[in-house]
Amino acid sequence: MTRIIDGKQQANRLREVIGQETLGLQERHGIRPGLAVVMVGNDPASQVYVRNKARQAGEAGIASFEHRLEANVSQQALLALIATLNADPAVHGILVQLPLPASLSEAAVIQAIAPDKDVDGFHPINIGNLATGARAMVPCTPLGCLMLLRQQLGELAGKRALVLGRSNIVGKPMANLLLRDSCTVTVAHSRTHGLAEECRRADILVAAVGRPGLVTGDWIKPGATIIDVGINRIEEQGRSRLAGDVDFTSASQVAGAITPVPGGVGPMTIACLLLNTLQATCHQHRLPFAEDIPQRALPTHRKPTRSVTS
Ligand SMILES: NC(=O)C1=CN([C@@H]2O[C@H](COP(=O)(O)OP(=O)(O)OC[C@H]3O[C@@H](n4cnc5c(N)ncnc54)[C@H](OP(=O)(O)O)[C@@H]3O)[C@@H](O)[C@H]2O)C=CC1
Ligand SMILES: Nc1nc(=O)c2c([nH]1)NC[C@@H]1CN(c3ccc(C(=O)N[C@@H](CCC(=O)O)C(=O)O)cc3)C=[N+]21
């Protein structure tokens, strides 16, 4: 039986536990975590996402501060805003919505964010710490994927994992996280030869390519766990809907467990953003952070020793 991994429900649980923790911070220390979201231009898809983040932050006891800048804002003005947010004690986390207009340097903007407040985990310091196995702020989307995998499979050690996509925001940090959990990791991309065969070897397949329905059932090892990161807006029969990078209909015939789109990785990304904001708040106030929040919220389904193929 294929299990549908309900990311929306898992994210609700995670946000509930985050809410209990923020309440504790407020009551014991009078501290309210704060998240600043900077949006440049007015891309409608980003607006929906930013609105969802603000609402869910509020429900979890996190203050959110939205900064909307015109698409033609200068690099200098954007960097000045980041400097202000870096210095603001009410702001514990800073997220600059990507992609930025082409006139702005994403690298320069990301590097301007104080690493302690970099709740996206995109700053080179955080990337380096993740890659070397040190404590780091971990990018939200791969972190959410890892939580779903751990919850689904328990122990990940020794499993063959294939990460499809090598972007800085999903593919590369995902590969690092799986390696940290002792998976045997392959990273595939647009220049990979024999992509279907690579995929068929994988016990765990994480697809983050931005190509709707690229991964079909015949690319999947029977019983494998499939995490579909893709969020693609497609037109079908004159209507617009969201589709993942995995063809859900054929893949769900073969997979052991699979995330849907919508309702899979997307909601976990936002929950992980709130978790990173809580972690950043504790760190900045030199307070202990409850590392076990994900395990408390999402206890594992299976005994750690059982393999996907057994
Ligand atoms: N659920 C969520 O929270 C999030 C979802 N997303 C979604 O995830 C998807 C990926 O996002 P992102 O990582 O930013 O995308 P990028 O466009 O930055 O990277 C795409 C990657 O996929 C590879 N690729 C593209 N086409 C193919 C192909 N035909 N075969 C094999 N590999 C291919 C590219 O290879 P190469 O490097 O060789 O060009 C690249 O490494 C998108 O749909 C995006 O909307 C993104 C962020 C968060
Ligand atoms: N600095 C930065 N950090 C990001 O993390 C970041 C970003 N920029 N730019 C854009 C991408 C995309 N992204 C999504 C997060 C949640 C959903 C999400 O909640 N999706 C819902 C549905 C949403 C809908 O219905 O439109 C779901 O999949 O169920 C989608 C996409 C984060 N990103």
Automatic annotation (TrEMBL):
<dbReference type="GO" id="GO:0009086">
    <property type="term" value="P:methionine biosynthetic process"/>
</dbReference>
<dbReference type="GO" id="GO:0006164">
    <property type="term" value="P:purine nucleotide biosynthetic process"/>
</dbReference>
<dbReference type="Pfam" id="PF02882">
    <property type="entry name" value="THF_DHG_CYH_C"/>
</dbReference>
<keyword id="KW-0554">One-carbon metabolism</keyword>
<comment type="pathway">
    <text>One-carbon metabolism; tetrahydrofolate interconversion.</text>
</comment>
<keyword id="KW-0511">Multifunctional enzyme</keyword>
<dbReference type="GO" id="GO:0005829">
    <property type="term" value="C:cytosol"/>
</dbReference>
<dbReference type="Pfam" id="PF00763">
    <property type="entry name" value="THF_DHG_CYH"/>
</dbReference>
<dbReference type="InterPro" id="IPR020867">
    <property type="entry name" value="THF_DH/CycHdrlase_CS"/>
</dbReference>
<feature type="binding site">
    <location>
        <begin position="165"/>
        <end position="167"/>
    </location>
    <ligand>
        <name>NADP(+)</name>
    </ligand>
</feature>
<dbReference type="InterPro" id="IPR020631">
    <property type="entry name" value="THF_DH/CycHdrlase_NAD-bd_dom"/>
</dbReference>
<comment type="function">
    <text>Catalyzes the oxidation of 5,10-methylenetetrahydrofolate to 5,10-methenyltetrahydrofolate and then the hydrolysis of 5,10-methenyltetrahydrofolate to 10-formyltetrahydrofolate.</text>
</comment>
<feature type="domain" description="Tetrahydrofolate dehydrogenase/cyclohydrolase catalytic">
    <location>
        <begin position="5"/>
        <end position="120"/>
    </location>
</feature>
<keyword id="KW-0521">NADP</keyword>
<keyword id="KW-0486">Methionine biosynthesis</keyword>
<protein>
    <recommendedName>
        <fullName>Bifunctional protein FolD</fullName>
        <ecNumber>1.5.1.5</ecNumber>
        <ecNumber>3.5.4.9</ecNumber>
    </recommendedName>
</protein>
<dbReference type="InterPro" id="IPR000672">
    <property type="entry name" value="THF_DH/CycHdrlase"/>
</dbReference>
<keyword id="KW-0378">Hydrolase</keyword>
<dbReference type="GO" id="GO:0004488">
    <property type="term" value="F:methylenetetrahydrofolate dehydrogenase (NADP+) activity"/>
</dbReference>
<comment type="subunit">
    <text>Homodimer.</text>
</comment>
<dbReference type="InterPro" id="IPR020630">
    <property type="entry name" value="THF_DH/CycHdrlase_cat_dom"/>
</dbReference>
<dbReference type="GO" id="GO:0000105">
    <property type="term" value="P:L-histidine biosynthetic process"/>
</dbReference>
<comment type="similarity">
    <text>Belongs to the tetrahydrofolate dehydrogenase/cyclohydrolase family.</text>
</comment>
<dbReference type="GO" id="GO:0035999">
    <property type="term" value="P:tetrahydrofolate interconversion"/>
</dbReference>
<dbReference type="GO" id="GO:0004477">
    <property type="term" value="F:methenyltetrahydrofolate cyclohydrolase activity"/>
</dbReference>
<keyword id="KW-0560">Oxidoreductase</keyword>
<feature type="domain" description="Tetrahydrofolate dehydrogenase/cyclohydrolase NAD(P)-binding">
    <location>
        <begin position="139"/>
        <end position="284"/>
    </location>
</feature>
<keyword id="KW-0368">Histidine biosynthesis</keyword>
<dbReference type="InterPro" id="IPR046346">
    <property type="entry name" value="Aminoacid_DH-like_N_sf"/>
</dbReference>
<keyword id="KW-0028">Amino-acid biosynthesis</keyword>
<feature type="binding site">
    <location>
        <position position="231"/>
    </location>
    <ligand>
        <name>NADP(+)</name>
    </ligand>
</feature>
<keyword id="KW-0658">Purine biosynthesis</keyword>
<dbReference type="InterPro" id="IPR036291">
    <property type="entry name" value="NAD(P)-bd_dom_sf"/>
</dbReference>
